[in-house]
Amino acid sequence: MPERISGLPGLRAFTAVVAALLAVLSLPHLAAAAESPPAVPPRGSAYMGMGVVPHDGRGGLPVERAAQAEGVDVSSHQGNVAWPTLWSSGVRWAYAKATEGTYYRNPYYSQQYGGSYDAGMIRGAYHFATPDTSSGATQANYFVDHGGGWSADSRTLPGALDMEWNPYGDDCYGKSTSSMVSWIRDFMNQYRARTGRNPVLYTSTSWWKQCTGNYSGFASTTPLWIARYASTAGELPAGWSHYTMWQYTSTGPTVGDHDRFNGSLDQLRRLALGT
């Protein structure tokens, strides 16, 4: 049994020591240190915009533009989607994740890709790129072979290449800026060889600057899908004077991330047709 502290000065000293210990234990950095480090998500679980909030922040809703057609993008995280409900809310186009790397296919892809079409939407497929696992051409073939193709039916958008922060490791997938540009070029060239269309490029300006050195060489042929959760699309990657699509929020009023096409529905149909 501890010795009894006699007298008021001794009691005050003991009380002060206890209070100091409790204050130290409550410090945020010590509490955080006691927690386990965040787990790396399983391969295949990535989705469009996964790294936008932690890297670029979350902003307000966009300034209203009546001419911009509303869209959504979905992945396995949304499961089976109620497409008629989305159509009733004003959504007129959609992209569904088809593939990732050469190791993953979205198990809900058929319902999402076909269901959006059945509801009347113009739809497309996207591929989540993992440049550290295989070549660009190899991943383009995998994408086209598993849902990422294109047809001139006025309802099918060209496939989209999702280039963004790596959720599984190094932000730029361990590549230099020049090797990243080469990887993207290989994907685009192979996709065009297989489908006759240039893919849409999805990215954020911050990632593009860091991981490609703000390369401008794709801008003349490649539709840009910019990711920025704010009231405006903001600065675009080098070479692009305008965006084609804009992912403006991951917390929209309905399922999936919400997007705007920079034009009317008729212009979106022309993009689908390739005219």
CATH class, please?
Answer: Alpha Beta
CATH architecture: Alpha-Beta Barrel
Helix proportion range = 25-40%
Strand order of the largest sheet: 1-2-4-5-6-7-8-9
| Strand composition percent | 15-25%
Q: CATH topology, which one?
A: TIM Barrel
| Low-confidence regions | 1-9, 21-35
> How would you characterize the largest beta sheet?
8 strands, mixed, barrel
Task: Quickly count the domains.
Answer: 1
Specify the overall morphology. Answer: globular
How would you state the average pLDDT, rounded? Answer: 86
Distance between the termini: 88 Å
Helical segment tally?
9
Q: Which structural class should the secondary elements be placed in?
A: alpha/beta
List keywords for this structure.
33% helix, single chain, alpha/beta, 275 residues, TIM Barrel, disordered N terminus, eight-stranded mixed β-barrel, 9 strands
